[in-house]
Write a structure and sequence with these properties.
Blueprint (H helix, E strand, L loop, with lengths): L5 E6 L3 H12 L4 E4 L11 E2 L8 E2 L6 H4 L16 E2 L3 E6 L5 E5 L2 H6 L5 H22 L9 H11 L3 H5 L5 H11 L11 H15 L3 E2 L4 H13 L3 E3 L13 E6 L3 H8 L5 H8 L6 E9 L8 H4 L1 E6 L3 H12 L9 E4 L14 E9 L8 H11 L7 E7 L1 H7 L36 E3 L13 H15 L9
Parallel strand pairs: 1-2, 1-10, 2-9, 6-12, 10-16
Antiparallel strand pairs: 3-4, 5-8, 6-7, 11-14, 11-15, 12-13, 13-14
Bound molecules: flavin-adenine dinucleotide (FAD).
Length: 482
Amino acid sequence: MSQPHYDAVIVGSGPNGLSAAILMQRAGLRTLLLEAKPTLGGGLRSAELTLPGFVHDICSAIHPLAVGSPFFQNLPLADFGLEFITPPIAAAHPFDDGTAALLTGSVNETARLLGADAHAYQHLMAPLVRDWPALAPDVLGPLRFPKNPLALARFGLDALPPVTHLAKQFQTQSVRGLLAGMAAHSIQPLTNLATSAIALVLLAVGHVHGWPIPKGGSQTIAHSLAGYYRSIGGEIETERRVRSLGDLPRSRVVLFDLIPRQLLKLLGEKLSSVYRWQLERYRYGPGVFKIDWALNGPIPFTNPDVRQAGTVHLGNTVEEITAAEQATYVGQHPDRPFVLLAQQSIYDPTRAPEGKQTAWAYCHVPNGSTVDMTGAIEQQVERFAPGFRDFILARHTMNTVQMEAYNPNYVGGDINGGIIDIGQLYTRPAVTLSPYRMGAAGLYICSSATPPGGGVHGMCGYHAARVALRDSFGLDVPVTLR
Ligand SMILES: Cc1cc2nc3c(=O)[nH]c(=O)nc-3n(C[C@H](O)[C@H](O)[C@H](O)COP(=O)(O)OP(=O)(O)OC[C@H]3O[C@@H](n4cnc5c(N)ncnc54)[C@H](O)[C@@H]3O)c2cc1C
């Protein structure tokens, strides 16, 4: 019988596919990464979507999880062109009365601006920020015996309740709104258990590392990961869409940076009936409607601090955001959706011609929605930045169907690879001893449909590759996560 050509083949070059490929290659194996599109990166691509000279992030834009990723921190990505720019105000949350909550690098400074809740905010965040470096590998990984059980237990007490419950511990609309905006990144009802977890993680990472913007566009994260991978001998082939196992060269293991819907089509009978049954029942969450703008100048936010923020949460109070997220979840399109907005070009002049700006935004919509939310999103920006529309030179939009056509991992526009609620937090994509094994020899899943879920951190790929290395090659990876 002929020998396998590769030790490992990785299908899909998103941040998780690239991370898995790097770890396998670093272990001294012969690996090949296959990508369907002409360019690498999955959710990490940038392009001139509107006008020449305006560089937009097609998917991810803001990278607290990338800079906070215990795996990425071990890679020499700066040597391969990655430069993070950290805005002094990571995120701003304006309110109708002209005030704004601001997330900065310092817990004390953020707290000082929160008035009557200053002490309570410090009490919540200071221990978490102190413990974060030790906690990160446990929080950004599968369910297992934690490396830091005490710190994780402390985190769990605040993280497990719904964010609407956590918000009630504060008196001011500032902290309540700030918490709701953070938790809304998880794209699910804010009354769900563990929605506090995502809020606390994003705040903690903001205080420890900031919410940085990659100079030149998110694509540079993918380029630096791919550059490093090639430098250690990894092989990459683009325009190689894998439709069946027959499309793959012979290898000992295959890692798929794909979500369950594609895996069912691709692997079918190869999977056990129990595993298939679970993948068929895997749940997808609401989708997103996204806009990129080419602008004639900076967004004229009423509050001057908001003009300085890399990311802006537009949704006003906890009550309003909770109502909008609930409506989306039950299939409605709120008139005032929660809008996530990034203004990268304020800090990265490579994104737009001189004197011009770009901005990126999305709101949540029901899974599979084709409703055009341009008007609703722009109205939310106008609400906090009157005159915004006068600055628009051009816009580019993507509804959920276009999002899925762009990348089949975004089923119905779900950008997290499946809803990350308590029922799927650790059991994504199925209830198994390890979420990365697919129950068939040599086959692994490494996408955001595994713990810890969506976002650019590479940790799904890291954990999947570790399991594959141990199972199939008897190797325990010599990577100490910081
Ligand atoms: C609009 C939007 C905004 C976002 N904003 C942020 C943000 O600001 N910050 C953040 O951290 N995260 C953000 N995300 C989420 C983040 O982009 C994803 O969670 C992340 O990219 C998932 O990485 P992955 O490696 O699991 O898969 P993906 O990035 O989806 O990569 C999968 C890759 O596999 C390829 N592929 C698919 N099928 C095949 C096949 N059959 N054969 C070969 N190749 C195939 C795809 O082309 C793709 O390159 C955003 C996502 C979207 C869509």
